[in-house]
Each structure stands twice: as structure tokens, then as C-alpha cells.
Please model this.
Amino acid sequence: MRAQLGDQLVVESPATGITRRDGEIVGLHHEDGTPPYDVRWSDTDEVTLVFPGPDAHIHHIEHGPGTTHEPSRTRSDQAGRRTSTEPRGTAPGRVLNPGDIGRRVATERARQGLTREETARRAGMAPEYLAYLEEQPADPTVASLVRLADALGTTIGALRGGGIDLPPGRGQALLHPRLVELGRDECRALLSTHGVGRVSVSTPEGPAVVPVNYEVIDDAIAFRTSPATVPAAAVGSDVAFEVDQVDTAMSQGWSVLVVGPAREVTDPAEEERLAGRAHTGPWPGGERPMWVSIRPTRITGRRITPAGH
Model:
């Protein structure tokens, strides 16, 4: 009997009339996929160590094209006793095919600086299973999503992508909100190194606000665009640039506003330096040969939190 993460273990015996029971294999203890297995049972959602008997069989789940089995390995103390299991690192050349839920879990976990092991501990699940969720198009149970959402301080809807097309800030206002003006250093920290912000410009058709992928390089905000586009209209004038984060579930958040002159970067050496330090390409894709740099002359920010925090 051999299995891989995500396969289904089915226990049934028609001859004796034993009630069928099934569960998802969320942890392996041998590299060749042989028993025992950590199984999350569908009827109780509990994870137990299982040594399958003759009345059990494996239902192999299709894990997507180009994926290979990557079992867990055990970790031992100095006496050689197995103390816990942990997921192996991604093998070189392994093709990952995460689903939307896995991508959102991995992104939120990384944003909070959490390891897989710590997140799995908070969620009460095996680290191997969390690795499987993040790397393959898995379909976790509602109970698993509840625990993951609680571990990450978010909601099931957010992990499933619900409300992704709705504007943030639809929650109720805090009962006792506190509005705090942020200092320059904290504003710079929130701007961080890169992300998505909004630039406000004046165009022949009137004021416009558009999102751009930005980089913070040498205290300046830089973004790529194309000539004759709305963001390109920022060149040669003072503009406003804004980034924010809104936690709808907690009715709190922050915003940072930068004001300063925008110029086109025309020096080839500077263009090459900006391109070399960019963390990501513009999300709209296509050719974006024009770099625009905003040199801040004023940085302000605000944060809304519950009173007493």
C-alpha cells in the first residue's frame, strides 16, 4: 500500500458489514508512501495515526499535471527518537500548482512573517497538510478553513476570495475608534519597498486617480508606465501618491499620503538601476518602457484603531 498527501483512505468491509469510513491523508511517515499515515477523518475532522488493515484501501487523488509526490520526513532528537514531522522543502525541479485558496493562505502567512510550522500549530493541523494546501489545488474542509482563518486572523470568505470584487471598508465603524496621526518614519516603514499604490494626476479630461505598481528606491517612489497614458501625465507636476490597508473585519486600517514633483527618468544608467532593483513587473503586463520618479516633499499618514490600543 502506497499513498501520497491528499489521497483518500477508505475503510470498509462489505463481508462483515463494517460501516465505511474515509479520510484525507495529511501526513506521511515513510518516503516511499507506505503506512502509517496521519489521516483527517471526514466524520470527525480529527487527525489520527493509522496503520491500515486488510479492510482499508487507498483512493488516489489526481494532483494535477506535472506534480510529483514529496513526502514528509521525520525529525529526531539526539537519542534517535522521532519527535515530530515536518514537510520537506520543495524539491528542485518540482512543479507547483497551487489553487487559489493555497495562494491566499501562503500570501497572508508570508505577510505576517509566519512559518508553515507555526501556522500549522496555530491551526491544529499537520505541517505536511498545510504544505499540500499551499502547493497543490486542494479542496480543504470547512473546518480546516475555519482553523486556518483563525490562525491567520482573517475570514473564510477572504481565504476563498469572497468579496474580492467589492470595495474595502464595508464593515461597521468601531464603537470607540481612535484616529492617530503617523510620524514620518512610520509612514516610510508602511510604504516599505514596493507594492501597489494610487497616483493622482491632472489630465485634459480632469483629475484622475490610477493604481500603479511602485518601488521605493533611494527615498523616491518610482513606477513604470507607457507614454500617453494617465500615469505618464504625472511628469512635470506635483502629484499625490497614496497607499493604504483596510481590515474590513476589524474596521481598522491605515493610509499614507505622499506629495511631491514627478519627473521622467531619462538617464540610461538610472533606468537600468531601477529595473535591476524592481521587485515585480507591472501587473497590466505589456511594454512599460517609461520610468516615473516622485521625490517626496511631504509625507503624512493616519491610522484608525480601537480606543486604548
In short: Residues 100-111 form the longest helix (12 residues). The first strand starts at residue 8 and ends at 13. The CA atoms of residues 213 and 235 lie 16 Å apart.
